[in-house]
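During the reporting period the student researcher (J.K.) took over the structure-prediction task from the postdoctoral fellow and processed the backlog of single-chain submissions. One of the processed entries is reproduced below for the supervisory committee.
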Amino acid sequence: MIALYIEYEDYMNTYKQTDLTQGNLSAHLKRIAIPASIGFLFNTLFNVVDTIYAGRLSTDALAGLTISFPIFFIIIAVTSGLGNAVSALLSIALGQKNKQLFHQIGKNALFLGFILSIIITVLAPLMTEPLFNLLGSDGSAQSLGIAYTNTIFLGSLFFVFNAILSGMLSSQGQTKPYRNFLVIGFFMNLILDPLFIFGWFGFPRLGVVGVALATIIVQMFGTIYLFYKVKSSSEFDLSLLKTARISAKTSKDILKQAIPSALNMATIAIGIFIINYYVLKYGGNQAIAGYGAAVRIEQLALLPTLGLNIAVMSIVGQNFGANQLDRVKKALKMATLYGIMIMMIGAIIIFPLAPYFIQLFNSDSDVVSQGSRYLRIETLAFVTYVILNICVSVLQGVKKPGFAIYIGIYRQVLPFAIFYLFGTYFGLGIDGVWWGIVLINWSAVFITVLYTKRTLNQLKPINV
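J.K. obtained the following structure tokens:
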């Protein structure tokens, strides 16, 4: 019934306005951001379900999935980079009213996605065990994490295509199809996880490999569904797609936009890798399991603002393409204000209830204690994430994606020294990691806001 309802709602809104250069900015933000945020909610709940089931298997299984996350982030980095590039460049093309360019970019993005997914599927598993060894993991947690990660890499094609197809839709202001996929995917995963993990109803008991297999099946469904929605979208013309060429120049333009975004996401993976290293160093498997559970709660708090990133990129891209630079600045201010308000509410709710949230994943007292401590300190940094993400989305929307790499390196690589300084030199142990995250994020906000304001003030109309 849920699937039928959201399909009906999506059908009724298929022909809604896709021109984001006109009309009320607040209305556009809400129309695009709310469905996207709902989709991200179910995507995070998808991951929460995986985490809960892993915790039910064992603490080592939960630790293994947590340790594997920065390695799995290779796929996330590539898909996010391509998806963001597609959304930004196609938004600009729509702002310029250039449908031929829209299809040229779309076709080349799909071609690039196919090539990159093959590379990931073949080469990424070769790095898995060395990276786990570098982290200092061992025993059952390591073997379970490797098994999960190597299985996930087999589904690279579907992850990559889903990001590209979603970018093609969000550039038109259509975020409901991707939301629909994530909602349906959540319920699919809810059913598939126990079947594959525990071997219910005669299925083989696959453990953490079952978690990965369920995810791949859901992503495959998403590729089929989103491709259908792109074909049905108001800006899509199959004849234009057929006549569009695979062009080295267009592919280069996409990569110029995608690589900085992907590298920014890759630095996040490095940052998680560094955090995991120090968490294992100072707290062991109980601490890493508590951190993994706490991150899921943190992601839930961030969900309402993630839709703002998609909305801002689409709105800014179209208005930049149409040379309406005042609307670009207004979109940044409005989205930032909404995001700050949402994150402050989230922090107020999570701080007192942190232990109860962690207990949903694991009842071990050390796991609950470590996860709760992280969450309570981290509430001081909640606002920083929304400010940073919105500013980066704005910069991508005006074809200035390069800054994301530098601020990503600052936020994710510098902490290696900060964590050692706080944790070992000052003797704060694992608390040094948590306070180091807060310090780095707030200083990054200061730098990013100054750079974004200066960049927007120096923008000049683009040639149409």
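The committee noted the following: The longest helix spans residues 248-321.
J.K. will present the remaining backlog at the next meeting.
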